[in-house]
């Protein structure tokens, strides 16, 4: 195993492998069925901050405190792409593959960049698209289940909805009183849940885009601190109390 403490873990979608990254910059690829080591290699000069498996291809993304981001071939442990991004060590970076594994999203500071994984090669390949609009550091971002959209949340208290085909911002939601900590699409892609540092959880009902911002509506579910417990068969479930929708936001 590793000689120094672990920093991050990732499990492949099919459950065949899991990968671990340590403070000394090493990555170990493990066989999930046997627990045996498949590959072990020195990936970064410093600790590894993030590991992310591609959902459909034998690829692994790594991000290190040496400010480098790399995509590895899981079969042989060789890198295919390298970005020497120069991110500061105190800057939060969000990196994810799209559901079809055709796009790689990286959000750093207040900018989101997209790479086409089928055409990007070598060192520091240029992004396919750059998404601009947030005025504060992005804390969270995710793809919709069909890969057509990206949702992002920021220190600027907003959630933005982007179209991945052209990078356009389709909607901006500003229902939070603090930084947006988490965003997630529902499995049908029709709704978006956002959690804020102010303790609020907001549910966004998304419709067909375009035509534009008026096609999004928000319903406040209440603050986590005001949650009520409901008895259900098989156990207890904690749910947020529903509050009245904000005037003018229900579509």
UniProtKB/TrEMBL annotation:
Q: Pfam families given for it? A: WD40
Location of the region described as Disordered in the Swiss-Prot/TrEMBL record:
212-251
What keywords is this UniProt entry annotated with? Repeat, WD repeat
| WD repeat feature ranges | 1-40, 41-82, 131-172, 173-207
Segments of skewed composition (Basic and acidic residues): 233-251
This chain belongs to the protein called WD40-repeat-containing domain protein
